[in-house]
């Protein structure tokens, strides 16, 4: 089992101990099996070439011991078909035959065989040749793994250069790492505080974004944060480090984990977290080295993505500030006219109703003169919040200017607009306002609607609503009037 701070270069001999024997001679089969089994090899047996090809495709042994003379398809034909199977890594084929003539040896090698042994079998020679072929297969396997790792790193760097979207970059990283390590879970975790972190991306659930986790439940991650060294645990359910949380991980028996720190300026910003079923052999050193490279790339992706995200948020903020009133956070005068033009054109095109409410705070100058402009500003903010709570989500609320407000009501007839205006009037009149002593706040409101005689454009609608508001002011205030 790998230690907490040291990654072992795991011997992959467990993959190399599979030998397929294809021979119709039961005596030869028994001899070969006995020799190989005594030397720690796992064997399977086929009486003919067809059965041997089937077992080879399913079982994927590294070495095939193949007889030349068999019923049906001979050894030459079987060898040719093995080479056409395009298995990765390619299995080594050792011909074992009573034939010892030069022609048989040359023809066997020409068909794709890697070695030739003449019967009767010498135990020492057989074991030595099988081991030699295993080393060759392992060499090819390592080349394939290195090639796959390099291709994956290239794909990750390509993904990072193709987009700066945080979700896309991090999702690409975890999915590629999971595919090359056969991980059942691969995540990138951002460390926030001592016991707080966020899963930014997880290949098993692409919808996961900034999922908060309690690090007290992940002692393996806390260990990596404190040591800044990759950590591999072969079976987390039995490892002493995980004893504080053993009950919560009981169902993870047989799971191996690998946590690689993402470090910048000697600070662990996050971790690359992998979980897979490898209790017998854990993670190989090459896999750890690969994950270290990816973790380093993850930092740059994370930094660039965060920087991009910050720029986008600042851009969105500036865009929002361009259309918002800085005091009340309602839409400003210019945006109000822009949206009213759009809604009026839409109402005309689709023959749908449109209403507008204009309102003005009654005697607002008296509030400023009595309590000061600071209190006046607080009153404006609180009235703005009251209006936002009272209107529908589809309505557009704007600060028209000074103490005057406007509400655009798409798809609303005059009757509905008057009802909403009355609700607004009552809500504002019933509210209490900080800083005011025995002072009641009221508003006057004017309502205009389309279609209405004389309302040919958005400017006419504003004028009509303004006229109605003027009548409300001169009609005693704290009331709603309708444009004639």
Q: Topology, please?
A:
Layout: H1 13-16, E1 18-22, H2 26-38, E2 42-46, H3 49-59, E3 63-66, H4 75-84, E4 92-97, H5 102-110, E5 115-118, H6 123-162, H7 166-181, E6 185-193, E7 196-202, E8 211-214, H8 219-227, E9 231-233, E10 255-264, E11 267-277, H9 285-323, H10 333-350, E12 354-361, H11 364-371, H12 373-390, E13 396-401, E14 404-410, H13 414-430, E15 443-450, H14 458-474, E16 480-482
Parallel strand pairs: 1-2, 1-3, 3-4, 4-5, 15-16
Antiparallel strand pairs: 6-7, 6-11, 7-8, 9-10, 10-11, 12-14, 12-15, 13-14
Explain this structure.
The protein folds into 3 domains: 13-143, Response regulator (Rossmann fold); 163-310, Beta-Lactamase; 333-482, Alpha-Beta Plaits, CATH 3.30.70.270. It is built from 14 helices and 16 strands. The protein has a 6-stranded antiparallel β-sheet with strand order 8-7-6-11-10-9, with helices on both faces. It has a 5-stranded parallel β-sheet with strand order 2-1-3-4-5, with helices on both faces. Helix 11 packs across helix 12 and helix 12 (373-390) crosses helix 13 (414-430). The chain is 47% helix and 21% strand.
């Amino acid at each position: 089992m790998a230690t907490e701070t040291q990654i072992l270069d795991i011997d992959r001999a467990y993959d190399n101990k599979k030998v397929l024997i294809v021979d119709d001679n039961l005596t030869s089969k028994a001899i070969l099996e006995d020799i190989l089994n005594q030397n720690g090899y796992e064997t399977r047996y086929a009486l003919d070439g067809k059965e041997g090809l089937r077992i080879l495709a399913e079982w994927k042994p590294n070495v095939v011991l193949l007889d030349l003379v068999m019923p049906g398809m001979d050894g030459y034909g079987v060898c040719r078909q093995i080479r056409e199977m395009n298995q990765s890594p390619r299995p080594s084929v050792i011909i074992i035959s009573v034939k010892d003539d030069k022609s048989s040896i040359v023809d066997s090698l020409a068909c794709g065989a890697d070695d030739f042994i003449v019967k009767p079998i010498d135990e020492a020679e057989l074991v030595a040749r099988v081991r030699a072929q295993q080393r060759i297969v392992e060499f090819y396997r390592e080349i394939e793994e290195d090639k796959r790792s390099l291709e994956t790193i290239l794909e990750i760097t390509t993904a990072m250069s193709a987009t700066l979207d945080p979700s896309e970059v991090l999702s690409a990283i975890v999915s590629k790492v999971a595919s090359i390590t056969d991980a059942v879970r691969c995540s990138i975790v951002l460390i926030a505080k001592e016991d707080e972190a966020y899963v930014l991306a997880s290949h098993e659930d692409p919808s996961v974004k900034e999922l908060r986790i309690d690090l007290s439940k992940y002692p393996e991650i806390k260990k990596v944060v404190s040591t800044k060294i990759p950590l591999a645990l072969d079976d987390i359910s039995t490892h002493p480090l995980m004893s504080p949380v053993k009950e919560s991980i009981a169902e993870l028996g047989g799971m191996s984990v690998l946590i690689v720190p993402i470090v910048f300026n000697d600070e662990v910003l996050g971790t690359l977290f992998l979980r897979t079923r490898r209790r017998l052999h854990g993670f190989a050193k090459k896999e750890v080295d690969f994950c270290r490279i990816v973790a380093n790339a993850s930092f740059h992706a994370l930094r660039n993505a965060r920087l991009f995200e910050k720029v986008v948020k600042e851009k969105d903020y500036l865009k929002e500030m361009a259309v918002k009133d800085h005091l009340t956070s309602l839409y400003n005068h210019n945006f109000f006219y822009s949206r009213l033009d759009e809604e009026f054109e839409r109402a005309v095109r689709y023959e749908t109703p449109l209403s507008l409410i204009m309102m003005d705070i009654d005697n607002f100058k008296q509030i400023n003169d009595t309590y000061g402009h600071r209190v006046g500003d607080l009153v404006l903010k609180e009235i703005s919040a009251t209006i936002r709570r009272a209107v529908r989500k589809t309505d557009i609320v704007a600060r028209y200017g000074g103490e005057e407000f406007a509400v655009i009501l798409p798809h609303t007839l005059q009757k509905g607009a008057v009802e909403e205006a009355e609700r607004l009037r009552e809500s504002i009149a019933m509210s209490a306002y900080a800083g005011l002593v025995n002072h009641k706040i009221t508003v006057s409101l004017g309502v205009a609607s389309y279609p209405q005689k004389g309302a040919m454009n958005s400017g006419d609608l504003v004028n009509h609503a303004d006229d109605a508001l003027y009548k409300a002011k001169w009609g005693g205030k704290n009331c709603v009037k309708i444009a004639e």
